[in-house]
Specification:
Helix 1 runs antiparallel to helix 2, helix 1 packs parallel to helix 3 and helix 2 runs antiparallel to helix 3. 77% of the residues lie in helices and 0% in strands. It is mainly α. It has one domain.
Length: 88
């Protein structure tokens, strides 16, 4: 596996798990989108590896700190560590 595809798969997995945790339903759109973005990232890496690593890193940081449909993954982790209850 190429370096950038691992980063993109990690970001997609975090987004998938966060959406699933918050909504209680399996977010198939996130899973399919993550798979398609991973394939696209593998193609970009064949053209320019530094570009692909940069895009993958930007995607990972964005997924970690941006709240989509509720709280961001870092906010959820903070709530779990602090013992705050999940708000529906």
């Amino acid at each position: 596996m190429a370096a950038s595809t691992g980063i993109v798969l990690t970001a997609a997995s975090i987004a998938f798990a966060n959406e699933w945790y918050q909504s209680g339903t399996i977010p198939w759109r996130v899973a399919v989108g993550g798979a398609l973005l991973t394939a696209l990232e593998a193609g970009i890496e064949k053209i320019s590896e530094p570009l692909a690593l940069g895009l993958g890193t930007i995607m990972l940081i964005t997924v970690l700190v941006t709240p989509f449909h509720g709280k961001s993954p870092l906010q959820e982790v903070s709530n779990v560590i602090n013992g705050t209850k999940k708000v529906p």
